[in-house]
Write a structure and sequence with these properties.
Blueprint: E1 5-9, H1 13-25, E2 31-35, H2 37-46, H3 50-62, E3 67-69, H4 72-80, E4 84-85, H5 88-97, E5 101-105, H6 108-124, E6 131-135, H7 140-144, H8 148-165, E7 170-173, E8 192-193, H9 196-204
Parallel strand pairs: 1-2, 1-3, 3-4, 5-6, 5-7, 7-8
Length: 206
Amino acid sequence: MTQPITLIHTAEIHRASFSTLRDRIAPEAELVQHVRTDWLDRARKHGVRQGLIDEIASLIHQAPGPVVCTCTTLGEAAAALGAIRIDAPMMAEAARAGGPILMVYALESTFEPSLALLESALQNAQQETQVLPLFIGQFWPLFEAGEVEAFTACVAGAVKDAVAHNDVGCVVLAQASMAAAAPLLADLDKPVLTSPESALRAALSA
């Protein structure tokens, strides 16, 4: 039997989302899911300090198999400790897509790690293209309040407006929390990339 996959979340909603995703693509896989909303709160207030890194390291090192960190804010630190960063496979795909990349994010704390990862992916793919950041933090309180349908509708509306006014080759929904907006953007005729499925598949093949 394959080893269980450990998931580190900072929002409770991801537990059900990844269970559903697992049931669809790998029903035999065992998921061990940890939800640490306090870690994101601390990172947003104080940055990813050594004390927080030590706690993340402890969880990762105790895991019996591959670990996926689903939080963009903590992703860089978790990856340095051996975890799979949820957005890494998605950014690699974006780098290969060609054309300007619309990078959508809803938390200021995710901007620098997401941009750095995307720029690294572009460098690895030997591609030069423009990155167009789209901040939609005004909608984040909807997600925090559990109004997921309203949040995803607002995300989709903002993306459609941005694509209508910019030359865009593909859209990157930089946080896992935005993945549910992808079906609402199916009529864009542009690739809309999300992170959960690509990251889970990477863990399954690890």
